[in-house]
């Protein structure tokens, strides 16, 4: 698990592939290990979302997420990671919210749960609650290696509420925490479009395609299962930044 963690934290498919053998070995040693199931779910989520949208990867991510929820009776972190995958890969926001609430009941001050939950809430359209969870995560663990999660949640939430300066600032903080993560650059590009900085947005969009050559607006929005009120403005801004439709 420890050897896999630094790769999984990058949230990109090539790094996820490096984590998988370690996680599979952990499960071979302990098949009902909820943390390993949760981390595998997150890695397959990264491969699905940013590595070609393989339905096999999607199904594997969901399977491990449910195993983590089943086995992780008192492991708030495993439940939180699994809930994130249920929200953004399985596209079941009701089950995801129930799992996040279960995790916060076990550990109300768990920055992992709050960080993963903030992103799921932001993408579901619950902007103000997402910001609340994100700010709590950052207060609890301001130097956390996963602080790109709450910063990204704030970027998404501010963007959907039309607060583009705040969205751009949050995106920059997220990128500083995890520079190779393509989606963070995509959210910055969207905010720059809305701020009228189209040339800067196009340069940022070009960076997205360097980090993730397969990125497309349509496939990304579909794979995340976003509600129309969230997907439409983000997609429109991405297209204006020059990101490909398919």
Structural write-up:
Helix 3 (34-50) runs antiparallel to helix 4, helix 5 (76-90) packs antiparallel against helix 6 and helix 11 runs antiparallel to helix 12 (198-211). The protein is mainly α and 246 residues long. Helix content is 77%, strand content 0%. It has two domains: 1-108, Tetratricopeptide repeat domain (Serine Threonine Protein Phosphatase 5, Tetratricopeptide repeat, Alpha Horseshoe), CATH 1.25.40.10; 109-246, Tetratricopeptide repeat domain (Serine Threonine Protein Phosphatase 5, Tetratricopeptide repeat), CATH 1.25.40. It has helices at residues 2-8, 13-29, 34-50, 55-71, 76-90, 93-106, 111-124, 127-140, 148-160, 164-177, 182-194, 198-211, 217-224, 228-240. The protein starts with a helix and ends in a 6-residue tail after the last helix.
How is this structure best summarized?
This protein has 246 residues and is mainly α. 77% of the residues lie in helices and 0% in strands. It folds into two domains: 1-108, Serine Threonine Protein Phosphatase 5, Tetratricopeptide repeat (Alpha Horseshoe); 109-246, Serine Threonine Protein Phosphatase 5, Tetratricopeptide repeat, CATH 1.25.40.10.
């Amino acid at each position: 698990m420890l050897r896999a963690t630094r790769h999984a934290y990058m949230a990109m498919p090539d790094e996820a592939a490096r984590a998988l053998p370690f996680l599979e070995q952990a499960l071979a040693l302990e098949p009902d290990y909820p943390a390993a199931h949760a981390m595998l779910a997150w890695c397959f989520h990264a491969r699905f979302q940013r590595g070609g949208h393989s339905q096999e990867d999607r199904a594997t991510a969901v399977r491990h997420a449910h195993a983590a929820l089943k086995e992780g009776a008192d492991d708030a972190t495993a439940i939180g990671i699994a809930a994130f995958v249920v929200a953004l890969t399985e596209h079941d926001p009701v089950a995801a919210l129930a799992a996040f609430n279960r995790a916060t009941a076990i550990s109300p001050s768990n920055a992992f749960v709050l960080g993963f939950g903030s992103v799921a809430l932001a993408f579901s359209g619950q902007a103000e609650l997402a910001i609340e969870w994100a700010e709590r995560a950052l207060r609890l663990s301001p130097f956390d290696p996963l602080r790109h999660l709450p910063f990204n949640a704030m970027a998404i939430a501010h963007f959907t509420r039309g607060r583009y300066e705040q969205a751009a600032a949050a995106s920059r903080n997220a990128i500083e925490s995890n520079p190779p993560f393509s989606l963070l650059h995509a959210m910055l590009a969207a905010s720059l479009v809305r701020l009228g900085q189209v040339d800067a947005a196009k340069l940022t969009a070009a960076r997205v395609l360097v980090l993730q050559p397969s990125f497309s607006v349509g496939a990304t929005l579909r794979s995340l299962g976003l509600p129309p009120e969230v997907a439409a403005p983000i997609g429109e801004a991405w297209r204006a930044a020059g990101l490909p439709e398919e």
